[in-house]
Amino acid sequence: MSTQTxxxxxxxxxGFEQTIGEVGRxxxxxxxxxxVRRPSPRKAVTRTLLNIAALIVxxxxxxxxYWMINLSLTPNPEIxxxxxxxxxxxxxxxxxxxxxxREAAPGQTDFQHALLTSLTVTGGVLVVTLLFAFLASVAVxxxxxxxxxxFIVSVLIVQMIPGEAMMFTIYGMxxxxxxxNTLLGLGIVYTAxxxxxxxxxxxxxxxxxxxxxxxxxxxxxxxxxxxxxKVTFPLLAPxxxxxxxxxxxxxxxxxxxxxxxxxxxxxxxxxWLNAFQSSSVGGSVDWGAVMAGSTMIxxxxxxxxxxxxxxxxxxxxxxxxxx
Amino acid sequence: xxxxxxxxxxxxxxxxxxxGGWALLSPSVIILGVMVGYxxxxxxxxxxxxYTVKNxxxxxxxxxxxxxxxxxxxxxxxxxxxxxxSLTLMVVLTALILFxxxxxAVLMTRLGRAWRVLVSIxxxxxxxxxxxxxxxxxxxxxxxxYGLVNWALNALTGSSDWTNHSWLLEPLSFYFVLTxxxxxxxxxxxxxxxxxxxxxxxxxxxxxxxxxxxxGWSRFRLVVFPYLRSILTxxxxxxxxxxxxxxxxxxxxxxxxxxxAQTNVLGTYLFRQGVGEFGATAAIGVVMVVxxxxxxxxxVRTTLKEEEL
Lengths: 323, 309
Description:
Order of helices and strands of chain A: HHHHHHHHHHHHH
CATH class of the largest domain in chain B: Mainly Alpha
Low-confidence stretches of chain A: 1-35, 313-323
Strand content of chain A: under 5%
CATH architecture of the largest domain in chain B: Orthogonal Bundle
Radius of gyration of chain B: 26 Å
Number of helices of chain B: 14
Order of helices and strands of chain B: HHHHHHHHHHHHHH
Structural class of chain A: mainly alpha
CATH superfamily of chain A: MetI-like
Mean pLDDT of chain A: 80
Number of strands of chain B: 0
CATH superfamily of the largest domain in chain B: MetI-like
CATH architecture of chain A: Orthogonal Bundle
Number of strands of chain A: 0
Largest interface: A-B, 121 and 124 residues
Number of domains of chain A: 1
Helix content of chain A: over 70%
CATH topology of the largest domain in chain B: MetI-like fold
Largest sheet of chain A: none
Structural class of chain B: mainly alpha
Distance between the termini of chain A: 33 Å
Low-confidence stretches of chain B: none
Oligomer: heterodimer
Shape of chain B: flat
Distance between the termini of chain B: 37 Å
Number of helices of chain A: 13
Largest sheet of chain B: none
Mean pLDDT of chain B: 89
Radius of gyration of chain A: 24 Å
């Protein structure tokens, strides 16, 4: 639940329209509209300098990712070498096989079981969170009742309360419920962590679908619930997908509470990776396999990030840029 | 007669709507109440007691000790050091991330399409890296024996001064590595958000400013910046909160060779108290929650205002 694990938590509402691509497109006319530019030497120099700066930003951003993949494809003797190899010249998938198949010490977990644990917890959290948050967001966006505003304000405040500050109190509660070191216990903790953001985001999506559409359907003879399920719900699908992905990423990456609540055989992927790399202190750690494991953990998140990209930032600013 | 009938029908409709609304909210209200509200209250209560794991095992009631836990926290422990360290780190991280993020965003507006896509992909991947994975990779880049950085510094200086140089042993250099990791992951968010905000600045306004002779920096400061102000405020508050809550990166770097006692931030400090002194740890938690609520108050208020709630 550290800074960036929570990167998706507090972004606020997500606007449909503000994907990065569209913002980029919207900007284009402006560049052209300033006037026809004749290519002058000075302009060419500026352009080159800007492109160099862009290249630097690109290389700096991507290098660690490249390095991880590079190492994961490099045989171990070359990793443990005083001279780094910048390309996987002796390409191998051995590290992946090792990370995937390596058997754990008794009572500990291996990659496959950690993957299963992570998928189970994440999947459960995803389904429950989406369901609960969907109901709540419909209530907040479509119903008028006393306490509605109070609920929204509390969701916003709860988002800001650091769950990890209450870690030992929650530890005590989970322990009292006999849920220590169980997937159910961890799942409940995660659901509570993810749900405020999910409600907040989905609320934006539901509110973004005009209620008039439903009214029109009702005039055409639908009942209120038919109108909702046949008209509004399909329009919400993209919102459900992207909020679902946020919930997934958050529980997939969560580290603190997993570290506190899960032991031995029940570690999730990040805690497995931590145990895997800290056994290194003796120097016997298989770094190629650690990098392969890291890559396998990172890849699903990267794919999902690429899917939802623009929505993430658009969301935060949708409120702020209205004016 | 008709009027009263209508009102009563209207009233019952409202009542039905309220009941429906709360029915839909109830699952979320229950889980948030049980998992956030209840522990928050419990933590505040526990922070005024000497509740320990012994009470828990034996089922005995703890004693009420007033503000003793808080007094001890601020006078008898190194909590104040950790707090100061966390706040300093937060200021440095936030300043760097915001500064670099805005620069990258402005850069992106001045690039051609292909270059902009390239930069976006790079930023997106950096952002998408799970924090633990990122720390593992960066930890390896700064590794004492086989790290790329030591190799590169040796190659650059033409010496072997950097062979086996430990980056994590000294607290300052530990924070240097930590700062690189967090800034690297933090910049994309600010860059994308600011870039989206820059897209909102109307072209005509900029054009008018150019015609009036505003150039470069003054155009940015006087014309663009006011449009960005509200976005940057929100980003600033979020960065303050996120950078104060860092845990994963610090913890993972510590297990790579940092000295925990000298490098703890709020989150890891609390975690390393361990299970046992529930009263004392609750006091730490309360201080953290209060601190973050104060710092995020601006965000909550701005959001409520912007969303017209």
